[in-house]
Amino acid sequence: PLRLVESGGGSVQAGGSLRLSCVASGTTYSRYCMGWFRQGPGKEREGVAVTDAEDSISYADAVKGRFTITKDDAKNTLHLQMNNLKPEDTAMYYCAADPYCTELRGLQFFPSHWGQGTQVTVSS
After folding, report:
1. pLDDT tens, 72-88?
2. How far apart are CA 41 and CA 53, in angstroms?
3. Among 70, 65, 86, which residue's Cα sits nearest to residue 36?
4. Cα–Cα distance between 94 and 116 in angstroms, integer?
5. Most buried pick, 8, 9, 14, 119, via CB within 10 A?
6. How far apart are CA 50 and CA 65, in angstroms?
7. Contact 93, 67 (CB under 8 A)
8. What residues contact residue 85 under an 8 Å CB cut-off, 6+ apart?
């Protein structure tokens, strides 16, 4: 089965940067839908950035211009570069994927597989 393992979370001050990584294993599919979601304290889980097999990318309005999602197909790795972090970005960040998904419409993504999450804390 597909397994997702995140890394790269931590604590930073506002304005700082972090880079999250997600390594996928256990699937023979090489190109499929993947993305990053987050859940802040007392909030519902929300999509942050997603990409599909055609490299179409969508971002949540709150992170546009600050976050960048990239995918290394050769290494089965998904990254999220987060710049100019704000306290409201504080959340548990989850990598997600669906090996049977090839095309996305915006942030409408309902993944079949999730990572365990990595905590991002931004202090003011």
Report:
1. 988 899 999 999 999 99
2. 32
3. 70
4. 7
5. 9
6. 15
7. no
8. 12, 14, 15, 16, 17, 18, 66, 120, 122
